[in-house]
Amino acid sequence: MPSREPRAAPGQEYFADWITDDITTTLSKIPESTIISNWTALAYKNETFDVATVARDLGVRYVLQGRLDRGVDDLELNARLSDAETGTVLWSDRITVSITDLRQLCHEVVERLAGALDLTLRQEEAERSMPVDAERPEFMDLVMRARCVSYKNWTRRHYEQSAALFERALRMAPDSVIALCWRAESRLILNAWPGPGIEDVLAECERDLAHALSLDAWNGHVHHAFSVLRQQQYRLDEALEFNRRARELWPSCVHTLVWRAVLRIYSGRADLAIDDAQHALTLSPRDPHQWTMYLHLGHAAIMLGEYARALPWLEHSQMLSPYWATTLMRAAAHAGLRNVEEARLLLQQAGPESAEFMRWARLSRHPMYLKQQSDHFIGPLVKCGLLPEEPHKAEDAAGSVAMLDE
Fold it and tell me: What domain range includes position 177?
């Protein structure tokens, strides 16, 4: 499990997070290794811990720790590999590279670590770990800042900030695969809010991602972003195939597994979605986005009509991170259990943002999804008198949930 030393230099936390993320991704491509998700690793960054505790919590054999110091012209990384059971330092090294060569930093860390563990590292994978654009520090700084904004926040304002930063980055490097992917993803997520301009946004994202794919067909993030795009185009079979390829190429990213859970809900296979979300919790037990995994567990259970099962997951999700979608789903679960007043209060708390999202967001037109949505999500709210009893319009952008805005 890679981690980094707590208390990064002021203003440089996003930079250290980026390096941790990239090293984790590259390490996961060592054939003989299983790497804990980078998000679980980052959850330890502000804590003082001993490696024996990590071994017990996560079941890992080794812990890679490091401290990154960023100067004006160069980067220095002090790294050490410890036996997680005994705390013995097995390997330590100091690596200094030019500020313009982040690719070399990641490559050297992974190559030296693989040598220390007597593992076989695929050279071409290590070299592919950082984009060519890393040679432009000002560009990479914009990308890292944009990623930090969108990773840690889930509001319209933050996704707009992230998209704007990626716009600036792409003006500097129009052929950057990473910026093309992240700009497309930010804009696709923003489809929860813009209204009737969705089709133009989807067309522009299609062009961005087709360009990114032509530049690097082996990039897992490109395939993940394409999966999100295909879902918003209601092409779920293709979305699942892009997701499968993304998971192959981007093995350290637990959120590709979480995204498969979402796709399975939208495909009418909520039973399989529960398996995926529970597996994601196992792979990344301290993930700061764990609340989304519990949210999807609750959503899947609602779609199966299992309201009593859904509520504890949704309540745990809300405790970890208050979010309007969780509140809306809790309302549906309480309606399913005929707890009318509780459902009414929660529906009011979900607020106008939920109605706007449900009016415009691209969810699914799959027949089984629409039936489950009608029977188990919207239906109970209608029966409790909390929503008007009107036919569900599958042709609407939000499928069967359009009436939430009425």
Answer: 133-251
